[in-house]
């Protein structure tokens, strides 16, 4: 087994093969076992770096794939319909294996940790990416309600943690690079959070096409409406209301916060932004990827 080290600025994390895991939920032996997880041809994996639109896209996929979710005739929340793949605490492998097809999973795993059989290009992967400045801002606020997190005293401290990859899932740069450079190994659809904000209707149609699911215009409109942030905030089936208190401390905030593009400007200093921009250019310049950092009002 590869070396396991603990993260100096967050004792709730351990680093394993370049990735930071939650030590109480994801033991390394379990993580290694996931590479041999048996994939079915109709499996769908939603993969993101944390706080990149995971909960939002999870709701969109449940609305697209389950008529009962779309019509509101089935009271099953998104965490049950679409379990967190790498959390042994919440979802033992035996439970994942027993799920009926088609199975939908959500994951924050880097490309190196996912099941080997995903490369058969039959099962589908949807990867959602979000600009790192907004991810950083969202993660900083999320630590207030995450019971498992070791909280930073201020944003300056958190900025250093994030840039050094001392947050759950490690470095944003590595996560994006790993999946994007191996895109030809998977049956994968890349989506950008900012594009979803600008035109969710088109994104829903794009996802439907990728999954070979036919919805009429009225059904697509329902998906778009029920996937709006205002609707999700008051919907117990999608707002993580049923996540255990041992994970989320609701009395200090909600799982779904703002979902805005460019909110990083309200917390990040000019110097921090410039530091990030320099590292971003060094880390990402060889990739044919562009990101939207703000949307004009």
Automatic annotation (TrEMBL):
One of the record's GO cellular component terms: cytoplasm
Organism: Pyxicephalus adspersus (African bullfrog)
This protein's record includes keyword Transferase: yes
Listed InterPro entries: P-loop_NTPase, Sulfotransferase_dom
Subcellular location: Cytoplasm
EC number: 2.8.2.-
Gene Ontology molecular function: sulfotransferase activity
Family indicated by similarity: Belongs to the sulfotransferase 1 family.
Residues covered by the Sulfotransferase domain: 41-287
Highest taxon, organism lineage: Eukaryota
Keyword Chaperone tagged: no
Pfam hit, one: Sulfotransfer_1
Keywords, alphabetical: Cytoplasm, Transferase
Protein name (Swiss-Prot/TrEMBL): Sulfotransferase
